[in-house]
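Reference record
================
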Amino acid sequence: MFKRSDESLIEKAIGGDAKAWQQLVSRYQAPLYYFGLRLLGSPDDARDLLQDVLIVLCRNLAQYRGDSSFKSWLFGIANYRAMDMLRKRKTTTEFTEEHDFYDDEAPSFEQQLYGQHTQRLVQQQLRSLPPEQRLVVELRFYQQFTFDEIADQLALSSNTIKSRFYAALDKLRTQLELANVEQSANF
């Protein structure tokens, strides 16, 4: 079964085709939710972000000009809304649900525990980064945008994006090394 292109679905959705609209939403619903979850750290905030982005999409789909990929345009909206939510947030929320993102093979119980611990640790350290750095890491690693695409979305230079990305990686590396030293000292 072939997959319709975003452009084809957009054209039909603008024309009133509800099925095309639903396919477009279905295609990006999960990636947008997990983007919000990793960036905002809360399932409720991730759902709020998803709902907000879909409302904006519904109202503004006809304004998509095709200057960049639809995914890039859509995540640009999500970036803006997420950063706005982070600015408005007064206190840091805790990540309250466990999510297993990798279900390829059935790992042993010890591997599962280690994987969950590592994943929790990385998510915790990601939340400690400044929002601008966290956003770049999210877009680069999880959404797999190029530095140039991220620069276009955020209206910044590629060098600024690279600088934020590598500064974030350095901070994460240091924080994770310290966390592993503290963890091993507790055993």
